[in-house]
Design brief:
Elements (H helix, E strand, L loop, with lengths): L1 E7 L2 E6 L9 E10 L2 H9 L1 E2 L2 E2 L9 E8 L10 E4 L2 E2 L18 E2 L16 E5 L3 E3 L12 H13 L7 E5 L3 H12 L4 E6 L2 H9 L4 E4 L10 E6 L4 H10 E9 L13 H5 L3 E4 L6 H11 L7 E6 L3 H9 L6 E5 L8
Parallel strand pairs: 12-13, 12-15, 13-14, 15-16, 16-17, 18-19
Antiparallel strand pairs: 1-2, 3-6, 3-10, 3-19, 4-5, 6-7, 7-11, 8-9
Helix pairs in contact: 2-3, 2-7
Length: about 350
């Protein structure tokens, strides 16, 4: 089979390796689609994602959909459409027994945080534990299901905010996670959703997934204390400061966008004077199950996918995914039947 390896900064190969054999309790998946995430972009363009440096060939990809190829238990028939929860959870810790995504010692598909690295899904075949498999309803196309993992992140962000029913919401950053956060907040009853970004094209995509209003931040600032909840999805320090200004007194800012593991300047004065709750988000627990259901109920979410490129053009796919003025979610087709788009 063929697999994609990132060897370091701007160093990517597609090489032939042995097809992995599933053991008891595992399933082999024939991968159809893999979405390119921000962490994948960091690994390719910088050779590292925050503190996690590529020190050996790393197969990227934790957003995937495909079909069962082999299940030694016989429970799942070949060809069964699936997606995959990409986490293997670590050891329980007192106080967060019910939050396994925060337990230490776990791993995540396509991550250099472990030694050896945890290989990802951008490969013809992937072997995972059977409890990581999520079956797709008949009404959910395999291509759309590639959004289940990033949508689960957005749903977890909404859950961390508490109830958004009837809320005035600001989503800061109209990248793929920001767009999916619009869909997640809408599904949970947000009354009005505004999206801010520095570029026109992402803002147009935000309108396409249900934003009520958009703000181009280099031209129009969000009104001070105007929003009940702000989902900050860019990770840019200036945007975090702006989120703290935009949220109302006793409102909530949910930090969804990842930030580097180093000090960055952020103005915390509004957090103090308005008694704002600042909440972090890290991956998700079991929201991928809700994501699968929502992708069935709201087929328009698929508009977040702007490009599907064949794996033969994987380097071009990474370049395209980095260009937010041109692309939303970029997906690599390994065995799917989508044409180049």
């Amino acid at each position: 089979m063929h697999t994609v390896f990132i060897n370091g900064k701007l160093d990517l190969d597609r090489v032939e390796v042995d097809v992995p054999d599933p053991q008891t309790g595992q399933v082999r998946v024939r991968v159809d689609y893999v979405g390119i995430c921000g962490s994948d972009l960091h690994y390719y363009f910088e050779g590292a994602n925050g503190a996690f440096t590529v020190t050996e060939p790393l197969t990227p990809g934790h957003e995937l959909s495909g079909r069962v190829d082999l299940d030694p238990s016989g429970r799942l028939a070949p060809g069964t459409p699936v997606t995959v929860h990409p986490a293997r959870f670590g050891s329980p810790v007192a106080g967060i027994e019910g939050e396994p995504h925060l337990w230490p010692g776990g791993s995540y598909l396509g991550s250099a945080s472990t030694r050896p690295h945890t290989q990802g899904a951008m490969s013809d075949y992937l072997v995972v534990e059977s409890d990581m498999i999520r079956l797709l309803p008949a009404a959910l196309p395999v291509r759309r299901a590639v959004l289940a993992e990033p949508l689960a992140v957005s749903l977890h962000a909404v859950a961390r905010a508490g109830s958004v029913a009837g809320a005035r919401v600001l989503v800061s950053g109209a990248g793929p996670i920001g767009l999916l956060t619009v869909a997640a907040a809408r599904a949970h009853g947000a009354a009005h959703i505004t999206v801010s970004d520095v570029l026109d094209a992402p803002l147009e995509r935000a309108r396409g997934v249900g934003a009520d209003a958009v703000i181009r931040v280099d031209q129009d600032a969000a009104a001070e204390a105007a929003f009940d909840v702000v989902f900050e999805c860019s990770g840019v320090p200036a945007a975090i400061s702006a989120a703290l200004v935009a949220v109302r007194r006793r409102g909530t800012v949910v930090q969804v966008g990842m930030v580097p593991g180093e000090p960055r300047p952020v103005n915390l004065a509004p957090l103090i004077s308005k008694e704002v709750s600042l909440v972090g988000v890290f991956r998700f627990h079991d929201e991928i199950d809700e994501a699968v259901r929502l992708l069935v109920d709201e087929p328009g979410i698929e508009a977040v996918i702007t490009h599907v490129l064949p794996v033969d053009d994987v380097e071009a796919a990474f370049v395209l995914a980095k260009d937010s003025a041109t692309s939303g979610k970029v997906v690599v087709a390994l065995s799917g039947d989508d044409p180049l788009s």
